Amino acid sequence: MTKDKIRFLEEIASNGHVALNVMQYDGWIMRFSNGYTGRANSISVLYPSSILIEEKIAYCEKCYAKQGLPAIFKLTECDQELSNLLALCGYEVVTPTDVMILDGLQNGDDRLYKDCCFFDKPDEWLLYYFEYEKLTDKANQETFRKMLSKVLVDTIYCSVMHQGKVAACASTAIEHGYALIQNVIVDANARGLGLGEKLCRALIAKAKEHGAEHAYLQVVKTNEVAINLYKKLGFKKAYTYWYMKKALIEQR
């Protein structure tokens, strides 16, 4: 995949998973969200820069330390030089993640949407998302609510019913014809029933109704179950990103 296409997808993905606060620094984007998720608390290299890289790394570290957070860099295949330099500075690779794309979305029908509920707002959807993600910390819940409220592109929240109860959740953010599929979670007691596949197919079809021609998502390389599902749906790997930080702590 070309550098320009990677930058494009990284940019719109950040509009679909929005940080609470953002600082622009000589082509780098610093994101801060109280430490909740790596994507919303990391530095991305999106645009050309002119300041010496060593100086920029030191400045980023200072900014994150001021917020009580570690400096985490989110890098793609376009950033190999910076990745090598960070390794020399004691940074380690964390959570390599594949970005996968599905082109040529198909329309849905009543059978596909059976047992599916769609929402423009996340209020009701969040109750089940928190439960199945086991996200019990009230501060993190509030941070995530605020992050969702800052998304300005079109969004759809989807839930799938099973035996009279919501059993799976996901959402999408749509921009420039691309639908970011994210927040996919199935109740642990209902896994293995095909609900994840139904959920994704229904959400992708609904995104098509809202003007999307492509869907894309981010999946951790070690999540073989999810990768196999997305391959079954027709997604193909586009590129890889990874985090780098000085303490090896998983980010998602």
Notes on the protein architecture:
The protein has an eleven-stranded mixed beta sheet, with helices on both faces. The longest helix has 15 residues. The C terminus is likely disordered. Strand 9, helix 7 and strand 10 form a beta-alpha-beta unit. It folds into two domains: 100 residues; 108 residues, Aminopeptidase. It contains eight helices and eleven strands. Helices cover 35% and strands 31% of the residues. The protein is α+β, with helices and mostly antiparallel strands and 252 residues long.
Q: In what range is the share of β-strand residues?
A: 25-35%
Strand element count: 11
Q: What structural class do the secondary elements suggest?
A: alpha+beta
The string of secondary-structure elements, in order, is HEEEHEHEHEHHEEEHEHE
Number of helices: 8
Largest sheet: 11 strands, mixed
CATH superfamily of the largest domain: Gcn5-related N-acetyltransferase (GNAT)
- Judging by the overall fold, what is the CATH architecture of the largest domain? 3-Layer(aba) Sandwich
Overall average residue pLDDT: 95
Helix content range of the residues, please? Answer: 25-40%
Order of strands across the widest beta sheet?
1-2-3-4-11-5-10-9-8-7-6
Q: Tell me the name of the CATH class of the largest domain.
A: Alpha Beta
CATH fold field value of the largest domain: Aminopeptidase
Principal-axes shape call: globular
Radius of gyration: 18 Å
The CA-CA distance between the termini, in Å, is 23 Å
**Which residues form runs of ≥5 with pLDDT under 50?**
248-252
How many domains comprise the coordinates?
2
